[in-house]
Amino acid sequence: xxxxxxxxxxxxxxIVFVGxxxxxxxxxxxxxxxEETKxEETKxESTSNTTASSGxxxxxxxxxxxxxxxELGKSDKFFIKNKGGYITAMLKxxxxxxxxxxxxxxxxxxxxxxxxxxxxxxxxxxxxxxFFFDKVTFYKSGDYKVTVFKKDGTPIASGKVRIEFE
Length: 166
Fold this sequence. Notes:
- This protein is 28% helix and 45% strand.
- The protein is of the alpha+beta class.
């Protein structure tokens, strides 16, 4: 009888031990999933447009913005010639921009990080909330991040675009 009680105690201890291992394993997987989800959300936030206190500012790209206000060839992927090419960056802000000039920064992204390719100043109208930046020029294929900044360094909006050779 004594050996039966020991065996039952041992069996009970093993069941509890296995239960703890399964529970801790599930918790760890849950934590890993939460961490991966958090990383994905952070990645999505960093690739989305900059949010102002009263709304979202949107930077996107077109082949051309015509004199009569038409946006032609809106996309996030463009083809250029081997010698280079350009596109137009479009900025819509949730409220008037409030400054008279901005900088448009072009960064080429890679697995080792990003490299600032160019920063161009543009004059804008402080009372407007819609702008176009003509002839943003690219000479290499790749993934790019374009960011519009106020002169004090405050980002207004950013967008990503892929450039490939024809």
